[in-house]
Each structure stands twice: as C-alpha cells, then as structure tokens.
Design goal:
The complex is a heterotetramer, with two copies of chain A (about 325 residues) and two copies of chain B (about 375 residues). Chain A is mainly α and about 325 residues long. Chain A has eleven helices and eight strands. The two termini of chain B are about 40 Å apart. Classes of the chains: A mainly alpha (about 325), B alpha+beta (about 375).
C-alpha cells in the first residue's frame, strides 16, 4: 500500500503546471470566453510539444502509452487553469479509442496528427444531447447503435447551443452515417465505449479537483487582501470557517479521484464504482467551493469582471456532465445496498 | 387568530387577479437589466401605475390604494402567480419611498413619489463604495456645502441599474471632522448631469445589472437631502431594514417559484431520483413556512409593533431558500443545466440557470448573510459585540 | 387574515408559564428523571386548579371547551419546562375522546376526576409499540381493532422499556379486552381516533417548540457567561452564527405550529398536511437547536450534571414520536406532488 | 501508487484476523466507562498485550511488533471488524506514549510503557481545567519545586475514566512569573495518593466516563516530568496533534460502523424511505473517503513528511461523519430510537442511541471543531489570526 504519485508523474504535473502558468492566465480563458477560441491555440500547441496531448497514445502511434493514473494530475492542472478545449475528449477518450478501434485508414488520417497537436477529437456518446467544443474539433468519434464511428467534422452538422460557460462551445451534432465512418468490427466496440465513458468521467473529476483548488486559492487570496471594518475579511471567523469547510471538502475529494485513477489503470473490478465515487466527491467539492468562494468575494465575485465566474461556471457544467450526482449515487447505491 | 382572508381581502384578491389576467403582457419582456428590456419594463410600470397597482399600499394622493399590509401581500401573491414582469422601479418604491414617508418633507413627497411610482423618474440605490461594502460606515464620498446646496464627490458601486436610471440616493459625509457613522447625510442626486459618470458592470449572468457611479463636484440643491444634515446614518438604517425585510422579498415570489418547481418535477419525473423528490417537497414546504412567518410578522406590524432586527431572519431565510430551490431545479434538469438563455435545447428557456445565478446574489446583497447573522446574534439574542 | 393569538390565549399562556416557572424548575424534572415521578405531582395539581388540565373538556363536563388552538401555547410552555407526565394524552387527546366516545359510566368514572386533576389518561394507538407514562396513569384509552377502548390501568399489564429520557417512563402495555372497555358504538370511533392522532401530533409539535426555546435560552445564557480567551464565548462569530441559525430555524417553525392549531380548531380541509408541516418543522428545529446548544456548551453540556441533557433527550424522543420526519414528509409529499 | 496491500501486509492482516476471531470475547463486555466494565476491559487488555497486539507499532522491547503505519491501519480495520472491545488504555497508548517516544528519557520509557500497554497501570489525561477548556493556556494549576521533585496543586476536569485509572498526565505552571503558554511543565502524576481527590462526572449517556481531579500539594518526583521544565506547552502540543489526528480515530472504526448501518438498513428496509437510503449510501461513501484520505496521509508520513495542522481536517471530518452516520441509524429506527440499553424492544440493544450520544462528543473533545477550523484557516490556508 503506497498512496502517492511517482516522481515521474509529479514531474509531468509540474511540466503541465508550468506551461499553463506561463501561457494560460485568466486573460486567455477570458478571450475564449469572449468568443476568440483561437486564444488558446498556442497553449494546445505547447502542451503537444511536451507530449501531454499524445500521452495516452500507444508507443506504436508515437505516444507515451500512459495510463489513466498518469493523466490524473495533468487533468487536475488543466482544471486549475480552466483551459478550454476538448482535452478530455482528445487525450483521455479519443486517442485511446482511435488507437484501439480505428481502422488503418482512420488511424493514418488522424492518430499521429492528433497526438502531435495538429487535430482535436470530440467524442459523443448516445446519451448526450449536446457536446462541447464541436466548433474547434477536427474529428468526431460517436457512439451510434452501440458502436463507435469516426467522422470528420467536415461531415458533421453543428447547431450551437450556448452554455452558461461561454468558453465551452456546446452544440447539437448530427451526421449521415456512411461505411467509411465505421470503426473496426473485430474489436468489442461496446466494451471500448464503456471504458471510454469511465475515462471521460474520471478525467472530468480530475478537472473538477483542479477547478476547486483554483477557486479556493482565489478566495483565500481575496480574503487576505480585502479589508472591511479595519482588517482583512479573512480575519473574520465566519470567513475562516467557510474556507476551512471548503478545504476539507476538497481535500477529501482528491484521494477519491486519485484512487479511481489507480483502479482504472490497474483494471480493478471495482473501477466503475470507484469512478462514480470520484465524480460524486469531486463534483460536490467543486460546486461547494464555488459557492463559498462567491460568498467570500461578495459583490465583486458576482460580476463577470472578476475571474472567479469563469471557474465557477465551468464547475457547474462539469459537475453535471458525464453523469451527475444522482446518476453516480444510484450506481454506487446499487453496489453497496 | 383568523387565517382566512376577510371578504374585503378576498374581493381585493379577485380584483388583482382579474386585472392582471387581462393586462400582463403575454410575451415575456427582455430582462429589465438590459437597456432594451428596461425600456419595455418602464412601459409596463406606466400601465401598472395608471391602473393604480404600482404601489398599492401608498396613500391615494400619491397614486396608491391605501391597501393594508395583508392586501399588499395578496397583491404580491397574485402578481407573481400571474408571472407579471419584474419591477424595475423597486429600488424607488420599496427602498427610497419608505424613507421619504418616514423622513421626507411634504414638498419632497409631492415632487418625487408619483413620478417614481409611474416609472417616469427611475431610481437607483448608491450605498456601497469600493472600500465600504459590508462596512458601510467606511464610506469616503463627501458633500461640500455651497450656495443653495451641496457639491458631491466620490465613487459609489454596485448600484443596480444605475446605467439606465435617472436618479440615485446614498450617503455622503457632510461633516469632514467626523468619522464612521457620524457626520453623514442622505442625498438624492441626478445621474444624468455634469460631473457624473456611470459605468455599467456586467453581472454573473451577463446582464448589465450593476454600475459604478463616479461623482465630481456634482451640485445637489439643499432640498434634496432627506432628514437632517449629518443625520444620514439614522435615516439610511430605516431603509436598509426595509430592504432586508418584507418589502424586498414577499412570499408570493417564492410560492410562485415553488410551484414552478413542482411543475418541473412532474415534467422530469423520469430522471428524478427520490432524493430530488424530497428536495422538491422541501422547497414547497419552505415557501409555505416563509409565507406563514410573513403573515405573522405583518400582523405584528399591523398591531403597531416594530420589527427591527427580526427582519434579518427574513433575509437569511429567503435568500438561502431561493438558492436551494434553484439548485433543486438544476439537479432535476441534470446535464442540460448549463444551457443558457437562447439555447434551443434549454429546459424552460434556461430560466432556472438564470434564476440560480440571480439567487446566488441573495446571500450577498442587502447586507451579507454574515452581517445578518451578526445582527441576529447581537440584537435579537443579545450576545456581546466583542 | 390575522395571525396572532387573542389576549385570552396569551393570558392562559402566562398563567401556565407562571405556574411552571414557580413550581417546575429543572430540579423537579431532575427528580422525576432520577426515579421520583411524584416530584411533579404538585405541578399537575396546580395546573388542574388553573383549569388547564380540564381545558379541553366540554362545559357539560365542567371544562372550558377550549380548542386545539387554545391549547397550543400551554403545550409550548409545558415543553419549555420539560414537565414530564401524560399531559398531551390527558389534555389534548384523552379528555376529548372520553367526552365524545365515552359511555355514561366511563364518563362518570373518569371525566370529572381527570378534568379536575385527580386522574391521568394515557392513550395508545395500535401503531405504537411502546407508550409513555403508563406507570403514572389511571386510565388507558386504547385503539384496538380500529375502535377506542377505555381501560382502567389496574387491568393493564405494564412492562417497562426504559427511554433515554428517564423522565419519560416508557412501557409496553397489554390488556384483556372486555365488554366494559368498549366505548360508545353510536359514534364514528374510527374518525374520532384519526382526529385524536392529529391532536396528539399537534400538541407534541407545540411541546417541541417549547423545548427548542428553552435549549436556545440555555445556550445563549451560557455563551454570555462562559469566558475563554479573555472574553465571553458568545463574542466569537462562530458561536454567534450557530445560535443565529438555531433561532432562525426555531422561529420559522413556530408559525407552522400555530397555523396547524388554527386549522385543527377550525376543521380546515388541509388540517392533516398542516399538522404534518408543524411536526416536521418543530421536530427538526428542536433537534437542530439541541445540537447547537450542546456544541456551545462544550464538555459541560455533555454531562448529566448540566440541565441541558434533559431537554435534549426529550427533544430527540418527541421528534421521533407521533410520526417521525420520514412519515410526515411522505404525507406532505403525497399531497403536494 | 500501489493501492494493493503487499504480501507482507496481507499476511499481517490474516494473522490479525485469525487471532481476533479466536480470542475476541463472544459476549459483549459492559461499558468500559463503568467500574465493572473497566475491570473487564483491563482483563482483555492483558490478553491483547500478552499476544503482542496491544501496541503493534511500538518497538518490540516495549511489547510491540514494530508494525508500519499501514499495518497499524490494517490492525485497526480488523479490530473493529471483529467488534473487539473498546480500548480503555487508549489515553495512555495513543496520547501519552507518542509524547514519551518523542520527549521521554530512556528511564521513563523503560518504566512506563510496558505496564501502560498491558493495562497494569492505567492512564487518564488531565488537560482541561474549569476555566481552561478550549483556551488551554489559561490554566492555573501550579507545581512548586521541593526537595527531589514538585508539589502539584489545582483542579483538572473532563478527565476520561480518571475515577478508575491509576495515573494521569497534564500541564502545571512551574514558573509562576510566566503566563499563558510559557512556564508550564508536563507532569505525570498518581491518582491514588495523598492530596488527590477524584470525583466522577456522569456523561450524557449516564456512564461515569469523566472525572474532576482535585490536587492539593501532591508530591511528584522530578523524574516524572516529560521534557524540560517550563517547556510543557511544546511537549503537550505534540500530543494534542496525535489526539486529533490518526491515532485516535482510525478508519477501521468508521468502516465497521458504516457496515453495521448497511446491515441495519437491510433489516429496516420496510420503513426506510428513499432519502434515508441515500443517507446510508452517503455514510458508506464517507467512511471510504476517510479511509483513502488516511492511507494517503500515512504514505506521506512514511515518506518522512510531517502532517501538522492537516490533522485538524481529519478531526473535523471523522467527528461530523460519525454524528451523521448515527443520525441516519436513528432515523432508520424511527420512533423506537429513544429506547435505551436494557429496553427489550430496543433495536440492536439500544447501541445506536448510545453510539449517537458518544458521537456527539466528537465535535467537542480533543479541541472543539471551532478550534480545528480556526487552525485549518490560519495554519493551512494562511488566513490572518486577527
């Protein structure tokens, strides 16, 4: 029993953190928010250079063949920075699916270009009414009739459906199915899609942890800086206890997410329930921290001039997506009771 | 105790309901916190005033109906039930007017009240300053006495709809030798005049609901002070108490939200788990609790009691109930909750997410709930201040 | 619409309050707690003299024919004092049942003596596994086969079942049914028993409000008196907010209880749901206030030397009896949804 | 990261489980907080020690097995799973011993540890005083230097099981010229000696679990100070941190409670509404969360990190989880929840109500949760003290 990341995993986290700190300040997120998704393009390119975009690709495909556990900390950092774009879909879900189920021609067309940062994948499961980042993606991997399909975005119709998080370009999508879209039929497409759903959920949970940490950092900083009644508001016991509660909820969510990463990476029999626990705790922590951070900020937090709102809205969206609390609690409940 | 409405009260309700059914615009107006929507709402306020419904509890001479507090609550229930437009005049009618009735001169009342209630002159509050939010007494804006009046200088913030309004009211330091609560006066001042700059600030939901007001040597005639010079704190406290209490948030609003929630539940029954069902029940019950608490309070007021710090309990209860109710609605909606107004697939045109964001301001404005709980502990329970 | 008690109702409340303040201090409750139920006998007698015990009896029976609304405030005061004994059973439930459904001989034997304080009634509905105060009662009114029975306690077997609230002598009871026990068969016994259940629930809710008020008073007083770190603990913002939350929950429960009293007294069609709302809010307020009061008291509150525990345990017991939160929430839910 | 147990760890678990299955008394002992029960529990402690299970993480020379922290957690999981008796030696083994290991002399360790772990000499903590609870530095008990040692005078309170124990430990002011945290020393002192009066105080659940200790000129040899004279605060703080943290409440305890709750749920399924079902799930999940958080912490410790103020998060989490879990159990039981131990109709012999009352102390003792949240805010988040 050893519950800690390896030095390699931490080094990768530090790499991602450095890139995002340098290249993805709040002003970048804000630019995307205001309708300029190209503002994040350079970040994507730098991440690709460091190997993060292709990290889950097999070595044959020029990737690092990294596991779900290896990608947990990078996704946490991506959440911390609120970097917009189909990162989960591309890294955690799309590349492994393409690698495992793509035909040779699909792989030739997409795998290397995506893994090296020259293309973006979005993934649509059949239970999704809308998908994010369709505007900026190059290829869609879609579940249809229980089987995976690989469709160039040029063949996909996209109807925007604005999200409250304007950096998440949501859309309804549709496509005319053709033979060329079908992925390999000599693999168990259903099983791969199931696995893909768990991976999407896990990576989303990791992002939620990062969002939570950032909102808490913002609130703590604000509580130290803002003075009322002649002292920092962070000296008020009510503010202290509010932020202490936020920290507790966040810190008890983290090991749940890390553990789910390990369960996925080592194919534990409990991995579905572990992923559900991760999503429940991470989602509840992030929305709870959001609420505390907003209350600590007061009126300033209630404006779109303050950066907080971009993280808060991402947290609301991600907590409800890839199975909301009701869905995952029910899944846990069926196992436990 | 008689919790039935009297025949007169029932008749009043019937009249409200009939008028609202006949007159509430069938198509929803744009948000009153946008420029275009504000104009639409003012047109509605004109209609409301001309039919005598703009300020039902006011004396007839100012355009009211001299309705009792109970009748006012009935009016509110009917108003929200009819899904009538939100009141962009509320910072005048519900916050400034009570102060004028208590401290204003006859001249001020004659001059100000009717145009305020009709929406001909619109009012914004200007309480906070960048470094005086919860700690209102830390304000630094000043008023310098000049021939015939005063010159105001300073900066106000979180001024709701000030970008669209004509006038504002707030506190300024008239005695520079005094600090904190002393030496302040309560001014009404124009927003569209020389020396005033208003900068809109977009709210969480993207609407331009707030503004900053910059004042540089803005002339205000002596007649536009409410109450006595240097006594502004006392005058203002009367207003903040009505802001917290009944007038700002009457039960009708939350009863209407609760019944819309029940309706949403029925439409989303397929995905709603039993825990959400219980939360829907809780939301409905809480709206009831708020209603009965309010009728009890109103009876006390009608018997001549003053409510004082008790109104802080109202504020905490309704603001946190409103957040919980909207959270329940969003949980019922599930994954699609993030869809914004204008998204085709949005449930109920995205109004629940919009309402949720609006509700999140409840525990912050009109005195944060932290401040309210301090007030309850110190003034109602008598716990020591330090 | 007028949501206020009459002067008469308030005068009655003041009478009860005065009696209890004078005669039922915590030391009396403690004596009963320690196994001397006779310590409360004098209080019962004084209450009878003021007419409170017989208040619900019809005028024919020498009572005041008072309604469920009239008895709300007295029960609140009884809760405030934590006076032990079958007050709800006798006043709110037993006397009206005996009056309405008793045979002439049952009434002759019990009604006047009970109404004047010379006897105590306990009431047992069929869904109750245990009943309180069997030890100190004179007569049992029991639901059996859906019909009310009136049984002298001398004919009832009583097996004690200790409650965590030692002042509430709980027991399982049983009796051999005989013809003499049957109450009148020319009245609708089922309807009277249903009504009796609502009355028992309502009076219990009123007691819970009183218990809550007393615990909050104790906690506020303690917070003013107890000093730590050189000042009263009540100056700490965490303590202030805790007690403010307690007050809010309590004060929003009160009108729900008063309203249910009015609904019962005026036979509103909503009275079942109104009684459920009263019980839910009063029960949750009392248990919530208990928890806050204990935390404010700290270790001293955690001993049986401090009076608080007697109120706290009564609150736990009463919140769960006459239908717990789950029962009443379900009843409300069926109506609302 | 490897969340599987190693072969050695699995073997250790197997050994624990086998021994406990063979040795845990089949009939429940009386409460260890009663005189008779205390005696029964001590007999059990003897058995435990003689088999080498009393303090698994201690060095072998003191009767331990030099188990790793992970192995200690495994032992605890097995111990609670087996429903073995509660540890009446815990205030010695888990609170005093860590202090002795860090600050004690070799002589002290040789003399004290084995009898402590075997239950031959039993230990009570004596931290609080009537006017020094949360504010421990306000204590007023003194130690006066005399030939060969010290004379202790003062009053201690909330001393768990001191009525039954042989010895106690606590802080006394050795330098009368100093105040607050300065000039205190950490003493071990006998409870059955001249000048000491111990008065039992009954807990909420009626057990005589607490005591007050009155000391009047009680002699203590110089050898019974731990650490340096006047440095007692520093020494004590090391202990209070282990009190809050892992050693006092290991996850095994809550996992066992959660599985008993699941079992109760299955037996009461007929009356349990869906909201209670969800609370049962929550209780189970929280026990899991606490377990994984703890394994993460223990890994940090095994890598040489010091945990410090983070342990306050443990304290808040487990204490509030424990209350919630018991509240859920009581809600499942419903109307019969008030039945006490000894009531025939009580569900599970009334243990849930007993456990609930015990759980209620969690947010109070070992530093109230208010104090813990202050620590988290100030020392972990770095918020200003004043």
């Amino acid at each position: 029993m050893r519950f800690a990341f390896t030095d390699d995993q931490k080094m990768l986290r530090d790499t991602v953190r450095d890139v995002l700190q340098r290249e993805c300040g709040p002003e970048v997120v804000r630019s995307v928010w205001e309708g300029r998704p190209e503002a994040a393009a350079a970040v994507w390119a730098t991440l690709a250079e460091t190997g993060v975009i292709g990290m889950t690709a097999s070595k044959d495909a020029g990737g690092l063949a990294m596991s779900e556990l290896d990608s947990i900390l990078p996704f946490e950092e991506i959440g911390y920075a609120a970097l917009p774009g189909p990162l989960v879909d591309t890294i955690a879900v799309g590349i492994p699916l393409l690698d495992a189920a793509g035909t040779n021609s699909q792989k030739d067309q997409w795998l290397e270009s995506v893994a090296t940062g020259n293309g973006k994948i979005i993934v649509a499961f059949e239970d999704q009414a809308v998908v994010p980042y369709a505007d900026s993606a190059d290829v869609l991997i879609a579940e249809r009739g229980g089987a995976p399909h690989c469709v160039p975005m040029s063949e996909v119709s996209v109807v925007p459906e604005p999200s409250v998080d304007r950096a998440r370009q949501l859309a309804r999508i549709d496509f005319e199915e053709s033979k060329a879209h079908r992925m390999r039929d000599d693999v168990d497409g259903h099983a791969l899609l199931s696995l893909a759903k768990e991976r999407a959920t896990l990576a989303t949970a990791a992002q939620l942890v990062g969002l939570s940490r950032r909102m808490l950092d913002m609130a703590v900083q604000y509580a130290k800086d803002r003075e009322q009644f002649g002292k920092p508001i962070g000296a008020q016991q009510a503010v202290k206890h509010r932020l202490a509660n936020a920290l507790i909820q966040q810190e008890f969510a983290r090991p749940m997410v890390y553990r789910a990463g390990w369960s996925m990476a080592t194919s534990q029999t409990t991995n579905e329930i572990d992923v559900s626990l991760a999503k429940i705790y991470a989602g509840e922590a992030a929305t709870f921290v959001a609420k505390q951070a907003l209350q600590v900020h007061g009126a300033i937090g209630y404006t779109i001039e303050c950066d907080l709102h971009m993280w808060m809205k991402r947290a609301w969206a991600l907590a409800a997506t890839r199975g909301d609390a009701a869905f995952h609690r029910e899944r846990v409940g069926r196992q436990v009771l | 105790m008689d919790l039935d409405f009297t025949a007169d009260e029932e008749a009043f309700r019937k009249e409200c309901r009939a008028w609202l059914e006949a007159n509430v615009p069938t198509e929803a107006l744009r948000s009153g916190d946008t420029r275009e929507g504000f104009r639409q709402h003012i047109a509605w306020e004109n209609v409301l005033f001309d039919a005598g419904w703009a300020a039902v509890s006011w004396p007839k001479r100012y355009g009211g109906r001299e309705a009792s507090l109970v009748e006012w609550l009935i009016f509110e229930e009917e108003y929200y039930r009819a899904r009538a437009p939100s009141r962009v005049t509320q910072n005048g009618i519900f916050l400034l007017a009570p102060t004028l009735f208590e401290f204003g001169t006859d001249e001020q009342k004659e001059r100000i009240l009717r145009p305020m209630a009709r929406g001909d002159v619109t009012w914004a509050q200007a309480w906070s300053e960048p470094n005086a939010g919860s700690d209102l007494a830390a304000l630094t804006s000043t008023a310098r006495r000049v021939e015939g009046g005063w010159r105001l200088t300073g900066q106000k913030t979180w001024s709701t709809r000030a970008t669209f309004c004509d006038m504002a009211y707030g506190l300024f330091r008239t005695d520079p030798a005094q600090t904190r609560h002393r030496g302040l006066s309560y001014f009404m001042f124009p927003l569209r005049t020389e020396g005033v700059t208003v900068r809109g600030v977009d709210r969480l939901d993207g609407d331009e609901g707030f503004a900053e007001i910059f004042l540089e040597d803005v002339f205000v005639p002596a007649a536009d002070i409410i109450g006595e010079v240097d006594q502004g704190w006392k005058v203002a406290m009367a207003t903040t108490s009505s802001e917290r209490g009944l007038t700002l948030r009457s039960p009708g609003r939350f009863m209407a939200t609760a019944s819309r929630l029940v309706d949403l539940y029925h439409r989303h029954r397929d995905r709603s788990d039993p825990v959400l069902r219980d939360q829907v029940i809780q939301a409905w019950m809480d709206a009831q609790a708020y209603r009965w608490f309010t009728f009890q309070t109103v009876t006390r007021m009608m018997q001549g009691e003053s409510i004082g710090a008790d109104s802080s309990m109202n504020k905490v209860f309704w603001s946190e109930m409103d957040v919980r109710t909207h959270e329940t609605a969003l949980a019922l909606i599930g994954e699609l909750l993030e869809l914004d107004e204008g998204a085709e697939s949005a449930v109920d045109q995205g109004q629940w997410m919009k309402g949720f964001q609006f509700a999140l301001a409840g525990p912050i404005y009109a005195g944060t709930n932290e401040i309210q709980r301090n007030i309850i502990a110190e003034r109602v329970l008598g716990l020591p201040r330090k």
